[in-house]
């Protein structure tokens, strides 16, 4: 009976690739581990998998009775709903420590770096296991995506070093050009339903007993969102009510301008200003220099709730 490596709900590239890369490592260490996903693949992730001829992990939303490795999260809200009925063998993550608990000791690799795949690369090195060329390629892309081509404040020198090493293994001469291709795919929003866009990279959090949802969309130029912004705002209102959320946000990140427009719908009209120190007009504000949800959005939000 296999074990499973599973990323978070509404998976991004790091979540999908982390499951694949960890499963490949564990297989070389003698464990039968299968990568799985909890949601649909984003266009960016599909581009990455296709670029390196990697198969899409199977969809698996129930893990009751299974043994699993958790990758790219440690919050129960982002886990399979029946995770309490599974055995958690380990966690690999680069976010804040969440509320997943276990009844037995487990393997934990949690570090403040820009991407979970950076940590998995260090796991390969620790065990003295070589990385296959195609696996190195998708890991490279995941790190470039999560660090926004090294622009994110979450990016560390370790991430940059690992990217250089993975590029050599994968045979990628110009990884920045590859990253631009990847972000062009991510920026293509025309024809995609507003709900799909809001939920493309979306996470729920529990803050002081309140359910808070935060989505993020990254583009090379935020002008691609102008024609659909009203639809996005309307979808936030709908999703807030459907999910019984106290607050819902959408972070529209402009990679080239290195900042984000944040759209907020909340039961507390003063929450966003308290969190970010900006004036929100009609629930919207530009936050210069804000690129990272986990480092620049979630911490000040949690502080505002407390």
UniProtKB/TrEMBL annotation:
GO cellular component, one term: cytoplasm
InterPro entries: DDH_dom, DHH_sf, DHHA2, DHHA2_dom_sf
Keywords carried by this UniProt record: Hydrolase, Manganese, Metal-binding
EC number: 3.6.1.1
Entry keyword Hydrolase: yes
Occurrences of domain DHHA2 (ranges): 179-305
SMART domains: DHHA2
Cofactor: Mn(2+)
Catalysed reactions, as listed in the record: diphosphate + H2O = 2 phosphate + H(+)
A GO MF label: inorganic diphosphate phosphatase activity
SUPFAM superfamilies with a match to the protein in the record: DHH phosphoesterases
PANTHER family assigned: BNIP - RELATED, MANGANESE-DEPENDENT INORGANIC PYROPHOSPHATASE-RELATED
The name this protein goes by in its record: inorganic diphosphatase
């Amino acid at each position: 009976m296999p074990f499973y490596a599973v990323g978070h709900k509404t998976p991004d590239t790091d979540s999908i690739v982390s499951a694949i890369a960890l499963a490949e490592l564990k297989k070389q260490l003698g464990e039968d581990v299968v990568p799985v996903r909890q949601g649909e693949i984003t266009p960016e992730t599909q581009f990455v998998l296709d670029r390196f001829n990697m198969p899409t992990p199977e969809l698996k939303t129930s893990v009751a009775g299974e043994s699993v490795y958790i990758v790219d999260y440690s919050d129960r809200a982002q886990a399979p709903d029946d995770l309490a009925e599974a055995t958690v063998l380990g966690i690999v993550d680069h976010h804040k420590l969440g509320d997943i608990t276990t009844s037995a000791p487990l393997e934990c690799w949690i570090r403040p770096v820009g991407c979970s795949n950076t940590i998995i690369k260090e796991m390969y090195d620790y065990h003295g296991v070589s990385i296959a060329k195609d696996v190195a390629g998708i890991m490279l892309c995941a790190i470039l995506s999560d660090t926004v081509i090294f622009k994110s404040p979450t990016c560390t020198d370790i991430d940059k070093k690992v990217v250089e090493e993975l590029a050599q293994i994968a045979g990628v001469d110009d990884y920045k050009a590859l990253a631009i291709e990847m972000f062009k795919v991510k920026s293509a929003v025309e024809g995609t339903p507003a709900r799909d866009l809001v939920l493309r990279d979306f996470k729920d959090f529990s803050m002081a007993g309140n359910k808070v949802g935060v989505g993020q969309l990254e583009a090379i130029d935020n002008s691609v969102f102008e024609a659909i912004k009203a639809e996005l705002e309307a979808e936030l209102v709908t999703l807030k009510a459907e999910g019984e959320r106290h607050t819902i946000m959408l972070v529209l990140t402009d990679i080239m301008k290195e900042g984000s427009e944040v759209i907020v719908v909340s039961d507390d009209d003063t929450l966003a200003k308290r969190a970010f120190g900006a004036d929100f007009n009609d629930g919207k504000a530009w936050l210069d220099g804000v690129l990272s949800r986990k480092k620049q959005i979630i911490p000040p939000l949690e502080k505002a709730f407390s």
